[in-house]
């Protein structure tokens, strides 16, 4: 194990929540079947793909699926034979998802065909997955007895595994305990361990590094300048590791932790807090985004105050089209908690919602949450939206007007 050169701890000033906070809206599966989202990843065609850590919410025998959703909120499900946890998408649209309990990797081709490949190691427990600089998908494994490996699967389904050694700790060793994995520079990938981070070359050479004690690595992301940001799941600290080997820890306020983290479109880093429906923005200052919104978990439901947290997958958040940040979410509201998908509109564009069947008040709420406006004030009516212009999923300037016809369309 190698140790990074230690640098001075940095504490950014915590600014109050921005007055022009980004809009937030729910975009969960309208059928309610895909209600256990674990992780989420962006596709090349302005769609997002969702791993679902549980059976579909429906009657009958347990069935499983991976979900795909677009900006209009249209879902398509791709059946698997086990629940999925990590998910990643290649440039050509091929999707790979891990099935930890079945110890398989599912592949969905651009044509929609699903194939599942068993790992060479029995009960390997594949978890997080990403696309490497070599065009293959790479994933973490933590098997029975804490055995740790990094797996690689080629586009045609051939799997190789590379062991990660136990980590020295005091006078003994502990299991590597692999977590998140991401692509890095110089044909390497980076991953979290129980005590720090590690890297693997595309040839399979593994190196691990300690982080300052105590450490509880959770999320991992690379900034535009190559600096690695490591959130700590049980500590008020983010470890930053520069390309020249310096540690630059960022102290957080007490009782604040971090889980999934991604670079944003504005050069800042965004990370989720495990509790308290809070998204943090780390730029020149630390800012909070309150992840509470009045919305519907699914269509035809009554709008309620939703408190949004990450649902525990890797990665639990991902950047999507039109400068949006997507969350594989747990939404708490009056009546309980339900899994779903939430979108934080960092870019501020009007992302036209699907208004079909909305009442006047529901249309206004949906448009406001999507940073849009109703084109004209409708007359007093109990009719619902029959058609709209432009269609759902269209991206317009902030507060752009959207026309809605209440009642039958001509």
Q: Extract low-pLDDT stretches.
A: 5-9
What would CATH call the homologous superfamily of the largest domain?
YVTN repeat-like/Quinoprotein amine dehydrogenase
- What number of structural domains do the residues give? 2
Strand residues, percent: 35-45%
Helix content: under 10%
Mean pLDDT: 91
**Helical/strand content category:** mainly beta
Give the biggest sheet: 6 strands, antiparallel
Q: Count of helices?
A: 1
CATH top level assignment of the largest domain: Mainly Beta
CATH topology of the largest domain: Methylamine Dehydrogenase, Chain H
Form type = globular
Structure description:
- This protein has one helix spanning 360-369, and strands at 2-3, 23-26, 37-42, 47-52, 64-70, 75-80, 87-89, 95-99, 104-108, 114-118, 126-131, 137-142, 148-153, 159-163, 167-169, 172-174, 181-183, 188-192, 196-201, 206-210, 217-222, 228-232, 237-241, 250-251, 261-263, 269-272, 278-282, 286-290, 292-295, 304-310, 317-320, 324-333, 336-345, 350-351, 373-374, 385-389, 395-396, 401-406.
- The protein is an all-beta fold.
- The protein folds into two domains: 2-348, Methylamine Dehydrogenase, Chain H (7 Propeller), CATH 2.130.10.10; 353-406, Trypsin Inhibitor V, Chain A (2-Layer Sandwich).
- Strands 2, 29, 30, 31, 32 and 33 form a six-stranded antiparallel beta sheet that branches. A five-stranded mixed beta sheet has the order 1-20-19-18-17, with no helix packed on it.
